[in-house]
Specification:
- Strands 9-8-7-13 form a four-stranded mixed β-sheet. A three-stranded mixed β-sheet has the order 1-2-3. Strands 4-5-6 form a three-stranded mixed β-sheet.
- Strand 5 and strand 6 form a beta hairpin.
- It has 488 residues and is an alpha/beta fold.
- It is globular, with a radius of gyration of 23 Å.
- Helix 8 packs across helix 13 and helix 11 crosses helix 17.
């Protein structure tokens, strides 16, 4: 891979950088820009040429009353779910491949342009067996490395130094080397003739996806994700009475979800949010104001907006500013207005929660209480004029400081949380309900014995918080908010 300062991570047809992320204000501006000033250089918003697709009241109604389940598949009507095979829920056309020797740029290009959430990694093009995966969590980790946010200890120094030298000299970095930074997701396979109960039990233990292979071989026939399985069970709920009986109950009565909701203040730099997500093994992170009201969400898939070198200043800008970029980009791509937060409350039914997860294709819903009066802190102008530049560890000082992977990032003025559309529609962060929590509930209700998802989360944190990442861990943790501390 070539250095991000001279080449984009993701190669795209030639176009002005403003057509992707918009103009970024100069860090030398001394006054705090307003929301409209900050967006002045962006391409014309779709909101400027038509009426909003939904009023705030209409959006709130949609959030409170999400669509009901879709039409059930007649193929599964009347069938005992113990007789349904995981291969019946998969499609080989959904599988996207990449080779270990492919450059990280090419792999990222395929990931983004294909619309897939994950690529299967193989040794050569004729192979049908997968040996690893490449997804947005891997991309997040690599971007943190490329911008100097990951620091190794002595054990990991050879790998780190080798990748750094390749990046600085413009050598392509193969995916095989990038994966040496660490695996973010366990690689789990099931034969296509395995019963659906096996998949529910595995997913209920915290695994996010399963690679489905032909019986008796390693040849891949599909990928089954948590979201696809939850959507299938939701749309065909009447065929599964044990699960269907759970939907009318509230998430509080069912006792699902966690009060361990890790969040970050919207005024913190984006790079701290990404580091926190990487260290804690999270796929998404709640963004809150000073009163812990949820004002937005950042997920791993949003890093696709950071794969061009021109977007590097976004990492030093605030999380709130990045959310505004996400919403603006969605509006331009989808041709409709977008709001930042999807949430439920403790008294929402399981049906209500699952419907929102399926409709938004999210992996988790933030559980919120009534909003608290929000007063966003005003950034200190002095902090804007003295940007923080990440530096490599002292034992890497022999590497050129002005070249990637230690790319100096300019700071830019932030946006107030209160300026975001729909920012006051959620409430105070009280917990989180994930697909893992729901599938764990389904598994236990069906008499299965999934592993404890909290143990899986602890394993992810231990893996992500390895010695290679230790240099950035303290600063990221200091930016997070744990609602357990807030309630004491």
């Amino acid at each position: 891979m070539q250095a991000p300062s001279s080449e984009d991570l993701r190669s795209t047809p030639s176009r002005s950088s403003s057509n992707r992320l918009g103009h970024t204000p100069s860090p030398v501006q001394s006054h705090r820009q307003s929301f409209t000033e900050t967006l002045r250089g962006h391409p014309p918003s779709p909101r400027a040429t038509r009426q909003p697709s939904l009023s705030q009241a209409q959006l709130q109604e949609l959030l409170n009353n999400p669509p009901t389940a879709g039409t059930a598949d007649p193929t599964f009507s009347g069938r005992d779910w113990h007789t349904i095979h995981v291969g019946e829920l998969c499609h080989s056309a959904d599988v996207r491949w990449v080779e270990f020797d492919a450059g990280i740029e090419d792999a990222t290009n395929i990931l983004i342009n294909s619309g897939a959430h994950v690529l299967l990694v193989r040794h050569h093009k004729d192979e049908r067996a997968a040996h690893a995966t490449y997804d947005y969590r891997d991309l997040t980790q690599y971007l943190l490395f490329a911008t100097g946010q990951l620091h190794p200890d002595e054990d990991h120094l050879p790998i780190f130094t080798s990748l750094a030298k390749k990046a600085q000299t413009g050598q392509p970095i193969p995916l095989r080397d990038a994966k040496s930074l660490g695996n973010k997701e366990p690689f789990v396979t099931l034969p296509a003739n395995a019963n659906l109960t096996h998949a529910i039990e595995v997913f209920g233990g915290g695994v996010h996806r399963i690679v489905i292979v032909e019986e008796g071989t390693e040849n891949v026939v599909g990928i089954l994700s948590q979201l696809r399985l939850v959507k299938f069970l939701w749309e065909n709920g009447r065929n599964f009475p044990i699960i269907d009986a759970l939907y009318p109950q509230s998430i509080k009565d069912l006792g699902i979800g966690s009060h361990l909701a890790i969040s970050i203040n919207g005024d913190k730099p984006l790079k701290e949010a990404l580091t926190l997500m990487n260290n804690e093994g999270l796929t998404s992170l709640a963004v809150v104001d000073n009163q812990l009201n949820v004002v937005g969400n950042i997920s791993n898939t949003d890093v696709k907006l950071l794969t061009k070198s021109s977007s590097a200043p976004l990492l030093d800008n605030t999380c709130i500013h990045f959310i505004s970029v996400i919403l603006s980009t969605r509006g331009m791509n989808d041709g409709k207005d977008s709001f930042p937060v999807f949430h439920v409350n403790p008294y929402s039914t399981l049906a209500h929660t699952v419907a929102k997860l399926v409709a938004t294709k999210a992996h988790r819903m933030w559980v919120t209480d009534s909003p608290s009066p929000s007063v966003s802190a005003t950034p200190n102008p002095n902090q804007l004029s003295q940007p923080s530049v990440p530096q490599p560890p002292t034992h890497l000082s022999s590497l050129p400081q002005s070249n990637p992977p230690f790319l100096p990032l300019n700071s830019t003025p932030s946006i107030s949380a209160s300026a975001l559309p729909g920012a006051n529609m959620a409430g105070r962060l009280a917990g989180v309900v994930s697909l893992t929590d729901i599938l764990n509930l389904f598994a236990k209700a069906s008499g299965l014995h999934p592993t404890d998802p909290e143990e899986r989360r602890r394993q992810r944190r231990r893996s992500s918080s390895s010695s290679m990442l230790r240099g950035s861990l303290d600063s990221a943790r200091s930016s997070s908010a744990d609602i357990r501390d807030a309630k004491r």
